[in-house]
Specification:
Helices cover 61% and strands 0% of the residues. With 145 residues, the protein is mostly helical. The termini are far apart.
Length: 145
């Protein structure tokens, strides 16, 4: 057991992280931690008189959770909802959120594919060498259709 936990030799105090160590443990920068705090996604611990705020090791897990969710395309508002379901007991709700996110991503991919086809067509028209009176790209962008 901890012989001197108050002084942090092997105990509770040494297990807690400064904001810099938390950022390193979660592979983010310090400003990300502060931003998550401002957004209400991460609690800001009290600052002891003359000391530094100390974060529990679980805070690193929470920050990594937020980053992974963002990498899957979830907004910070959606992440806040996921954090409420983090206990793992609301699998149905979590699945519904993920299904909705997947639908949005598939719609976006469809939109991007449509934009790619249109741009390729416009570029081909420009490269055809038939020098029309105006550039087909500018004409298309200027049209009011």
């Amino acid at each position: 057991m901890n012989s001197v936990p108050w002084y942090g030799v092997k105990g509770i105090v040494s297990e807690h992280l400064t904001i810099g160590r938390l950022a390193r443990a979660a592979d983010v920068n310090v400003e990300t931690i502060r931003y998550y705090q401002r957004r209400g996604l991460l609690d800001e611990p009290c600052k002891p008189l003359g000391g530094h705020r100390r974060y529990a090791p679980a805070a690193a897990k929470r920050v990594r959770f937020i980053k992974r969710a963002q990498q899957l395309g979830f907004t910070l508002e959606e992440v806040a909802g996921l954090l409420k379901l983090e206990d793992g007991q609301s699998c149905r709700e979590t699945r519904l959120l993920a299904e909705h996110k997947l639908e949005m991503i598939e719609e976006r991919i469809s939109d991007l594919n449509r934009m790619r086809r249109l741009l390729k067509g416009l570029i081909s028209a420009c490269m055809a060498g038939e020098r029309p009176r105006s550039c087909p790209i500018i004409t298309t962008l200027s049209s009011s259709d």
